[in-house]
Write a structure and sequence with these properties.
Helices cover 0% and strands 47% of the residues. The chain is mostly beta strands. It has a single domain (15-100, 112-127), classed as Immunoglobulin-like, CATH 2.60.40.10. β1 (20-27) and β2 form a beta hairpin. The protein is globular, with a radius of gyration of 18 Å.
């Protein structure tokens, strides 16, 4: 599958060279949603990403999985799963490629294939209690 980018100066990179080029988190005024902006380098093969938001206690309060995106620039809204959101939060992003099992003549049990993680990023944001 060919992937075309608008800027001809952007050279698509092989999976091992793709990196996270931007990660931003902006809480909405209601204090319950967060706009996440993620950008990756131009790519030859479509990457995947996992986004995880944790609170100050390290508890996961939101998660999103992006599978084989066709866009370098991704913007999503994540909803915090807390009764009373507030305080400091961390966003972790993992950019990876899923390894697919090869087709074999034997149909025995397939081993689990670990993804090829190419980059990780982190940012933080604060929500005022009672927003």
């Amino acid at each position: 599958m060919d992937i075309f980018f608008k800027d001809p100066n952007e050279i698509p990179l092989p999976p091992e060279e793709v990196r996270l080029s931007a990660l931003k988190a902006e809480p909405w005024p209601d204090g319950r949603r967060v706009r996440i902006y993620l950008e990756v380098d131009p790519f030859q093969k479509r990457p995947c990403a996992d986004l995880i938001i944790t609170n100050a206690a390290g508890e996961e309060v939101a998660r999103a999985n992006i599978l084989e995106t066709i866009s370098r620039k991704i913007e999503i809204n994540m909803h915090l799963r807390e009764a009373e959101p507030g305080g400091e939060y961390n966003v972790q992003a993992v950019v990876y490629y899923q390894k697919l099992p090869s087709v074999s003549e034997e149909s025995g049990p397939q081993e689990s294939l670990e993804p090829l993680v190419v980059d990780r990023g982190q940012t933080s944001f604060t929500i005022s209690p009672g927003s």
